[in-house]
Amino acid sequence: MNKVLRLLFTTILVFSVYHLVRDLLTNFGIHNYIVDFAHRPHLWCGKFYPWVCHWITVPPEIFTLIVSLIVLKRNRVGVLGFLVLLQVPLWLLLVLLP
Fold first, then answer.
1. CA 61/CA 52 separation, integer angstroms
2. Which tens digits make up the pLDDT trace of 4-13?
3. Burial, 66: exposed, middle or buried (Cβ in 10 Å; 0-12, 13-18, 19+)?
4. Distance separating the N- and C-terminal Cα atoms of the chain
5. How far, in Å, are 1, 8, 55 from residue 61 at the CA level?
6. Separation of alpha carbons 82 and 56, rounded Å
7. How far apart are alpha carbons 28 and 13 in whole angstroms?
8. How far apart are CA 16 and CA 88, in angstroms?
9. Helix 3-27 to helix 78-95 angle, to the nearest 10 degrees?
């Protein structure tokens, strides 16, 4: 794996850890500057039960975190790494939802 991919997966790993911790703290009602930074409620959440909006991002974050560690340890992208890389544009698209 070249340096660019290693840096990309390291960045994804760091972001996933931050996002998972932020989401868990928010779900348990803990708010501060670090938790509330760049966080906004989405309009689509009102159509579902409250637990759906709170917990919908946790499984993909855990998957991304574990797979990023596997990719960095194996030093090879493979199918798992490709799945993580497919998630990046999807997450960026979901951020744009109202």
1. 15
2. 999 999 999 9
3. middle
4. 37
5. 23, 16, 10
6. 22
7. 23
8. 11
9. 50
Q: Are 22 and 35 in contact (CB under 8 A)?
A: yes
Q: Which residues contact 58 (CB under 8 A, 6 or more apart)?
A: 20, 23, 24
What totals of helices (H) and strands (E) does the chain contain, helices first? 5, 0
Q: How far apart are CA 17 and CA 25, in angstroms?
A: 12
Residues 45-80: pLDDT tens digits? Answer: 766 666 777 788 889 999 999 999 999 999 999 999
Contacts of 70 (CB under 8 A, 6+ apart): 80
- Measured in whole angstroms, the distance separating CA 94 from the mean position of its chain's CA atoms is 11
Closest residue by Cα to residue 72 from 31, 17, 23: 17
How far apart CA 92 and CA 11 sit, in angstroms, is 15
